Amino acid sequence: MKSVKMLAVAATLVVLASSTAMATPSTQIWIPSTDVKGFKEVNISIDNYARFSSAAGAGANTYDVGVTAGILPLEKFKVEVGVDYITDNTAGSDMAKHPAYFNFKAGVPEDAFFKGMPAVAAGMFGINTASDPLSANIAYGLIAKTFPVIGRLSVGGYNGAERSLGVKTNSGVLASWDRTMSEISDKLWLAVDYQSGNNAFGAVSVGGSWAFTQNVSLLLGVDVYNPGQEVLYGGKPTFTTQLDINF
């Protein structure tokens, strides 16, 4: 659920212990989704990632204000672009010096060309004009299918810059489950997503959102970085709040 714009925006996203960050396209909780903004649709997102630990090496708290907009006037093939202002509010940090991150995505929705067709999307995020290691330049592809009762399942993969994510650790799997919990309320949405990789972007995230109106929703979630790995490149877990406003 996330960000892009043509001017500039202000604020922050997940900073990892290694000082990498993700500029956010339309997402689940942490990973991109196959959702793509339609023509002239605009999303403003305000995201906070607060560490559960204040120990040395836990990683910084980060903040992200972003805008995402649909730019293609087609129903069955959509394109969105976005920009985020991401900072850790740490004086002199690389992120504070170069807070602008860019992203783009193209996709086809479910059932676009035939009944039962999965959604397909591909794009890039983490694009920074600064030099290493801020620009992760992560390219990804995803497919997703919604099943009765179960909800939507998504799977895909990604590949990023070795200088940012590490040699031979710069790629991995993307996967997620999400569902609107209509049995409780059509306003309640739950999700779990996963990004593999022995790098600062590897994470498991769990959360849910509540739609206060048709255009305003708030997501609360938890991100656990590099689960099961000896070195926590992404730092200690974070509690995330993500406010989305759609136009």
How would you explain this protein's 3D organization?
- This protein is mainly beta and 247 residues long.
- It has a single domain (42-246), classed as Outer membrane phospholipase (ompla), Chain C.
- 3% of the residues lie in helices and 46% in strands.
- It is built from 2 helices and 12 strands.
- The chain has a 12-stranded antiparallel β-barrel with strand order 1-2-3-4-5-6-7-8-9-10-11-12.
- A hairpin with a 7-residue loop joins strand 8 and strand 9 (188-195).
- The radius of gyration is 17 Å and the shape is globular.
- Mean pLDDT is 87; it is low at 1-22.
What is shown here, in short?
The chain is mainly β and 247 residues long. The protein has helices at residues 94-97, 162-165; strands spanning 42-51, 62-70, 78-87, 100-108, 119-128, 138-147, 151-159, 171-180, 188-195, 203-211, 216-225, 238-246. Strands 1-2-3-4-5-6-7-8-9-10-11-12 form a twelve-stranded antiparallel barrel.
